[in-house]
Design brief:
Elements (H helix, E strand, L loop, with lengths): L17 H23 L12 H13 L5
Amino acid sequence: MAQAAVPRPAATPIAIPVRAIVPWAAFAGAFLLFLIYFVASEQGAVALFSGTGVHEFVHDGRHLLGFPCH
């Protein structure tokens, strides 16, 4: 004999306050801008570091993303 399925209450989603999300979103945005700077323009018109170490580290990524570098 089969037993009847017992209905379970629906799970309520957890509400995350905006005050908890804003710092993480600001950090992620700043990090992405920093990353785009290194891929797009480091060792180009402006450079924070001397030498070609950063350029060689992100060289293939520049070509993959369509940024000219030489």
